[in-house]
Amino acid sequence: MSRGINENISYKGRVFHVQTEERGRERPALVCTLFYGGVILSEERLSYDDADVSSGRFQEMLSGIHNQMIENLRNGLYDDKINALPGTGEPVGASGAADPLAILFRTHLLPSLSRDLETELSEQEVLTISEKIPLLKGASEKDRYLLLCAEIYSLIKDRCDMEVFKKFVKRWSSELRFRPDVPGNGPR
Description:
Blueprint lengths: L3 E8 L2 E9 L6 E8 L2 E9 L2 H5 L2 H18 L4 H6 L15 H17 L6 H10 L8 H16 L5 H15 L12
Antiparallel strand pairs: 1-2, 2-3, 3-4
C-alpha cells in the first residue's frame, strides 16, 4: 500500500511538484502540497482514522486528494498565486534554452529539502539561489551541481547539520540518473 505520491506536473510551460503524504499515526492526516520553485502554492489536509486504513479506503483518499490538487492546478485555481511569484518565467541559460540545473533545483532539490530535511527555504532564498544558478560556472555539470548544493547549504547551515546535508547531496546524486547537459533529461 502506497503511503505517499510525488509527481511533477507540467502546466502552461512550467513544472510543478505535487507531494501527497501521510503524517503518521500520531497525526492521522493526509497532506497534499503544491510546489513551484520550492515555494508552497497550496496545501490541503484530509483527516482519516484507523478504520479508513484497514478498509482500503486510505488509498482512495490518498489518490483523491492528490488528483484533486492536480485538477485544481490545471483548472487555473492557482494562476493568481503563480503569476504573483517573482521570477516565474522559465529559467534560461546562456543559449536561451531552459537551464537543466535550475529545473533540477525547482523540481527535485527544493521538494526534497522540505520533505526529507524538513527545511523550508523562504521565497527570497529561493529567488536568491535561482538568480545565482546561471552564474554558477564549473568545469562540468557535476561541478555546477556541487556549487548549487554549496549555495543551498550556505542558506540552511543554521537549520541543518552539515553531515546530514552531505548525505542528502550524495543521495540526490545517485537518485537523479540524468545528464543535465542533454535538454529534456531530468530526474526520474
